[in-house]
């Protein structure tokens, strides 16, 4: 019985460790960020892929993102040239199972017009870097039947 209790406590401490680390990383997202640039590091030419099933990438340039870390929600306002200005809601969290990876992953669901629990699709994004002033994401997308990488660079306001 004594060994069972020790093993149970050890398991609980280990399983809570990843969640705690994810929560600490999520706090670094807090606040307002501007999407400064969108690039395609392993491809050449002009691309205007749809991001997050919301709008073309060009509409996201200079968008302002607000991350609320205490409830894992936020919003972003699209204001790209030639695009209608719109504000979209989202929920997000760091996948604790990816914290040991070189690039932990962010899971984001666009919830505009829906309750978050009703949205069952989202995007998985690698966090390439995150500091007090800059954040870089990498996302894979399919363009004309081929997978490409999209790099999103944010600056903190």
Describe the structure.
With 157 residues, the chain is an alpha+beta fold. The chain contains two helices and ten strands, in the order αβββαβββββββ. The strands form two sheets. An eight-stranded antiparallel barrel has the order 1-4-5-6-7-8-9-10. The protein has a two-stranded antiparallel sheet with strand order 2-3. The longest helix has 26 residues, at 2-27. Residues 2-15 have low confidence and may be disordered.
Report the strand count. 10
Strand content: 35-45%
Strand order of the largest sheet: 1-4-5-6-7-8-9-10
Overall form: globular
Order of helices and strands: HEEEHEEEEEEE
Rg, rounded, reads 18 Å
Q: Structural class, from secondary structure content?
A: alpha+beta
- C-alpha end-to-end distance: 55 Å
Please state the average pLDDT score. 84
Reported for the largest beta sheet, the result is:
8 strands, antiparallel, barrel
Number of helices: 2
Helical proportion?
A: 10-25%
Low-confidence stretches: 2-15
What attributes characterize this protein structure?
single chain, 157 residues, alpha+beta, 8-stranded antiparallel beta barrel, two-stranded antiparallel ribbon, 2 helices, 43% strand, globular, disordered N terminus
């Amino acid at each position: 019985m004594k060994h069972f209790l020790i093993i149970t406590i050890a398991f609980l401490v280990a399983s809570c460790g990843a969640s705690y680390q994810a929560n600490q990383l999520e706090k670094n997202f807090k606040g307002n960020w501007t999407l400064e640039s969108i690039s395609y590091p392993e491809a050449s030419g002009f691309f205007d892929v749809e991001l997050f099933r919301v709008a073309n990438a060009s509409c996201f340039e200079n968008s302002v993102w607000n991350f609320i870390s205490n409830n894992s929600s936020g919003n972003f306002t699209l204001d790209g040239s030639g695009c209608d200005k719109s504000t979209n809601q989202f929920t997000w969290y760091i996948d604790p199972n990816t914290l040991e990876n070189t690039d932990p992953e962010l899971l984001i669901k666009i919830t505009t017009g829906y309750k978050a629990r009703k949205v069952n699709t989202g995007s998985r994004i690698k966090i390439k870097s995150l500091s007090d002033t800059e954040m870089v994401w990498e996302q894979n997308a399919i363009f004309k039947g081929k997978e490409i990488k999209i790099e999103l660079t944010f600056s903190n306001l």
